[in-house]
Amino acid sequence: MIAISLSPNAQADDVFLALKILLTPWRWMRGSAIKSLEDWFRRYFQVGYAVSFDSGRSALYALVKALGIKSNDEILMQAFTCVAVPNSIIWAGAKPIFVDVDDVGNIDIADLKKKITRRSRAIIIQHTFGISANMEKIKKVASKHKLIVIEDCAHALGATAGGKKIGTFGEAAFFSFGRDKVISSVSGGMVITNSKKTAKLLRNFQKNLQFTSLTKIFTQLFHPIAFSFILPLYNTIGIGKIILIVFQKLGFLDKPVAKEEYQGERPAFLPSKLSCAQSLLAGNQVKKLAAFNKKRRQIAEFYSKKLSSLPIKLPQFDSGDIILRYNIETGNVSSIYSFFKEKGILLGRWYANIIDPEGVNLAKIGYTPGSCPKAEALARASLNLPTYPRMNIKETMQEYFKKNG
Ligand SMILES: Cc1ncc(COP(=O)(O)O)c(C=O)c1O
Question: What residues have CB less than 8 Å from 65, skipping those under 6 apart?
Fold first, then answer.
């Protein structure tokens, strides 16, 4: 079985690097690689400041605090997202206000305007699947209502709009280096900003955090190594699956979302500092950013060409977008999903549960079912095709429609 989220970015050099770091535990926590990664972000975005954290959610949590957002202040954000986003807002004491989405799965500007109140302080703009939101229009609304703009670039590292880098349109932006993101160190995150005041507060916040624990660093280093031999063995004789279960039971592999987070609660290990081990992994991946995004685009264009005659809605994208996941919309989600599963391919389901993953307590994070109907419809209809060359998606999709009309 090939799951879309199992270390899709890890190549042979990343696996060897993880192994090398694993064998040199004195380099796991502190080291110059942390600053080098922050410097890479500063230079790449030509911004004043970059501050690293153990994850995107910790980066957002720190940012909400640094921006001086107070208890009961409202932060507007789109539905059709990951629970990490509303949770970070809640952990920082503010209130997430969910806004509906437009046709591409980004924030709907008309609904945004309706949901602004006297308590609104900021908007988080997600560039869903790497397709950029309309920043010019959003900035006009934000400046009219004196709202801080935070860009959620978890899916969009390397994207541009009108020649300008996504991540440089607002007051600040944050990134994720999660296991299935644009680049990956299994977990990791960064904030960039040009505001000296915000950067100073972020840096103070970061200084007072603990490093990610040694156990957690171990699981992160072990992740790409484990999947490098689990994946090839998965479909053959089932050994891969057995190894995977054993590693999970032994606690050698980490879950992307902790138990507490499903209930809107903050696990004790969050937030923490980005470790040197994670920085080394992410530092190796940023070198390949342009090549990764080029490949993703080629695969996306290939899908668009080959799937155009099938009765599914295909994503539309511009030249500056990066396509982290190729999201199709269909009325046959569960049967297409099962068909691919039988063939050994687990398609992606971002964000089938409107606020992913499945099992999130929507009441605890303040989402009222029915309040974002377009996002809910999109969640029901979405299936994500991977944009890395692992399986022959095109033939399987054509075969499905040949059989099912
Ligand atoms: C849109 C979006 N924003 C933020 C995050 C949080 O990133 P992280 O997993 O690094 O905490 C995610 C993670 O899945 C995401 O999908």
Answer: 92, 201, 205
